[in-house]
Write a structure and sequence with these properties.
- This protein is about 40% helix and about 15% strand.
- The protein has about 400 residues and is of the alpha/beta class.
- It has two domains: about 150 residues, Aspartate Aminotransferase, domain 1 (Alpha-Beta Complex), CATH 3.90.1150.10; about 240 residues, 3-Layer(aba) Sandwich (Aspartate Aminotransferase, domain 2), CATH 3.40.640.10.
Length: about 400
């Protein structure tokens, strides 16, 4: 008779990895607790405060007693505002009933995959990718099919590569534009070319992660798949939220729209998982979506200036090379020229993970290794920091690179 190990974990969970970003953040916290000075370029969140009118809406909700459970899929008023947002900003015709509000964008993604994947189903994920995509797929019983998209492709998926990756088991394609970690942005024409491939494969659903929608630079326009190709609307989940655009990461509000059958399934799952999102946060998100939007333009201007400064300074560091990202607030810099070098502390750099570990230990700068995002040797730098800190970090990175020996 076999005795079950009481500590045995779900096999899908055992195969999943902790978030690389949070592992680095934990190391930063430990070093700071020990008294070390560290400039962190690893957290993917704006450094601005949530706009005043949004914060006041949260306070007003508390004072008004809006502190009870809400509907599982969110307050009707917020879902109507979400539908209006998709129509106003993305040209989509959305019924509020075909929307869902969740505890952050990550839950929207998790619920969609958990509601639709059966064991062995495949999800196409272009690399570099947000670190959580493959592990969410794994936790939901699916299999990630990674498609490498290097610098020569602008870190973007081509129609030919998409076609080659699709099999009879393909269930989803995940697209993230602007991209975390590269800042790559798909144009209307590029999305249209991908759509032509998808139209020939009706079993494939599309998850469009648009969370960085409002952080596009140089006057470029944003496009999303369901807008570019309406014929894919009945199998596209368009996901967004208030975290990046309105500096509301801690409020934990994400939302999405898609075909009714999928939204219904996601709501059913959420009802047995967390129920509705925080009522206070929902009222704050309602104020964000229906109130003044000048904050978005101001923050975009600041981030574009920071991007220009960071990319210029990274390209001045020996052994580093960084293309100019089109959006988000990340620089994805090649550190290939550092591999094989020896640090002043005597460490030989064999990988991009070695590079970020040495940067933290020897230069006091925290970044995340690109191989965690599916492509090395790169490092991801989040430039969501004040100008002074960014210049200090850039100077430290440059000095670190200059001090390396063969």
């Amino acid at each position: 008779m076999t005795t079950q190990n009481p500590r045995a974990l779900n096999r899908f969970l055992e195969a999943a990895r902790p978030s690389a970003t949070y592992r680095v953040m934990d190391r930063v916290a430990a070093r700071r607790a020990a008294g070390a000075k560290v400039i962190s370029l690893c957290a993917g969140e704006p450094d601005f405060d949530t706009p005043d009118h949004v914060r006041e809406a949260g306070i007003a909700a508390i004072r008004a007693g809006h502190t009870r459970y809400t509907q599982v899929a969110g307050l009707r008023a917020l879902r109507e505002a979400v539908a209006a947002k998709f129509e106003r900003e993305n040209g989509l015709t959305v019924d509020w009933r075909d929307t869902v509000v969740a505890n952050g964008g990550k839950q929207v993604i998790f619920n969609a995959l958990a509601a639709t994947l059966n064991e062995g189903d495949e999800v196409i994920v272009p690399a570099p990718y947000w670190v959580s995509y493959p592990d969410i797929v794994q936790l939901c019983g699916g299999r990630t099919v990674v498609v490498a998209c290097d610098a020569d492709s602008g870190f973007k998926l081509s129609p030919e590569a998409l076609q080659a990756a699709i099999t009879p088991r393909t269930r989803w394609l995940i697209l993230n534009s602007p991209s975390n970690p590269t800042g790559a942005v798909y144009s209307r024409a590029e999305l249209g070319a991908l759509a032509e491939v998808l139209l020939a494969h009706p079993q494939v659903l599309v998850l469009s992660d648009d969370i960085y929608e409002h952080l596009i630079f140089d006057g470029a326009a944003f496009h999303t798949m369901a807008q570019v190709e309406p014929r894919l609307g009945d199998r596209t989940l368009t996901m967004n939220g208030v975290s990046k655009a309105y500096a509301m990461t801690g409020w934990r509000i994400g939302f999405g729209t898609g075909p009714g059958w999928l939204i219904e399934a996601m709501e059913k799952l959420q009802g047995q998982q967390t129920s509705g999102p925080c009522s206070i946060s929902q009222h704050a998100a309602l104020a964000a979506l229906t109130g003044p939007r000048d904050f978005i333009q101001r923050s975009r201007t600041v981030f574009q200036s920071r991007r220009d400064t960071m990319v210029e300074m990274l390209n001045q560091a020996p052994g580093m090379r960084c293309e100019v990202p089109q959006g988000a607030f990340y620089a994805f810099a090649s550190c290939e020229g550092l591999i094989g070098k020896i640090t002043p502390a005597g460490m030989r750099l064999e990988s991009d993970e070695d590079v970020v570990n040495a940067l933290l230990d020897e230069a006091g700068v925290a970044a995340v290794h690109g191989s965690a995002f599916g492509l090395g040797p790169y490092i991801r730098i989040a430039y969501a920091l004040d100008d002074h800190s960014l210049k200090q970090a850039s100077a430290a990175i440059r000095a670190f690179c200059q001090a390396l020996s063969d």
